[in-house]
Amino acid sequence: MTPAARTQAAIDLVDAILDAARAGGAAGDQVAKRFFAARRYAGSKDRRAIRTLAYDAVRRFGEPPVSARSAILAMADADPLLAATFDGAPYGPAPIEPGEPRAEAGPAPRWLVEAFAAAGLGDTELVALLDRAPLDIRVNRLTADRDTVLAEIGGEPAADLPDAIRLPADAAIDQNGVLNDGRGEVQDIGSQIVSLATCAEPGGFAIDLCAGGGGKTLAIAAQMNGQGRILATDTDRPRLSRLAPRAARAGVTIAEPRLIDPGKEIAMLADVAGQADWVMVDAPCSGTGTWRRNPEARWRLTPDRLARVVATQARLLDVAADLTAPAGTITYVVCSLLDDEGAGQVTAFLDRRPDWRALPLALPRGRVHGPGMRLTPAHDSTDGFFVARLGRA
Predict the structure, then answer these.
(1) Which positions ≥6 away from 48 have C-beta within 8 Å?
(2) I need a labelling partner for 352 at 20 to 30 A (CA). Which of 162, 271, 323, 344 fits?
(3) Does the predicted model carry a pTM greater than 0.85?
(4) CATH superfamily of domain region 189-392
(5) Residue 174 confidence (pLDDT) above 80
(6) Which of 199, 210, 285, 335 is flagged as catalytic?
(7) Structure confidence by residue, pLDDT tens digits, 240-265
């Protein structure tokens, strides 16, 4: 492909990501996968160049641009080589016309910038949220040891986490045996850290209330040394269906998936009410802490959507309280840095549940924030998380 054709392809890809974000469709990585599947004529170097330019544009513009062309044009104003590709060549973008609109660069929509500021997060934190994320692996201690896995895949061991390995963002290990045979799982170091906040031990009973595909379920199973019971529940059948094969690969036999209907958690979990030693609430959230991986998520989030997930989080915390044994604990986690979903959400729970209190946390990374701890890319080199551990007073 010519440089001009690559530029036009990047414009087309950003437009597809924009359309999906506006319609609440597929995530950006899925849009890109389908985009390139329909363009098999593009070689590996072409795909890499197109993806790089497209995602540079997605990261650079916090407000959804009026069009992808307006975003790439704004970048071309500072890049003569990119501007030169707007030459009207076949398969390339049309020449630049005087007065064409340009997208305005910025880290996030204005209302979100204000929300981050209210949570005590400034420009440095916002900029770090848009860096490319490294690739983190959690070594499955039930079937492997880190030194052996390191010798096989390389990377850097995390000094403060005995099971964590970090690789570059572009490391290609999708077909590596470590992931295929259950000796390792792709899991951000921040996610590994907040899983530790459960303080789960062998022989107990844990409930992962929003298990999804089971990443934290498997991490908790490793903490429990494969002994005890984990009930992994979710309302999303396709996501939950991934747990069983992952658990089988990892040698985890204590995890029991259970599909539940939204809003009917109490009735469908009545048989375990008041019994759990540990309840993990990895609640649905805005995902503001994962922009390094999903920068187009800034274009999806609206105040109304945020209000809906905040209401869901509050309901799930109350469900978790009913599932917890008298001496049990709740670990509340969101991959968000907004106080409405983190510190404010837990404070509201404690206000309406005066028989509960926040418990101290001793985690290898993070800073105290309100009734819990916060991890950020700038400070902790992880995705953004808020985590709190709660117990009855």
Answers:
(1) none
(2) 271
(3) yes
(4) Vaccinia Virus protein VP39 (3.40.50.150)
(5) no
(6) 335
(7) 999 999 999 999 999 999 999 999 99
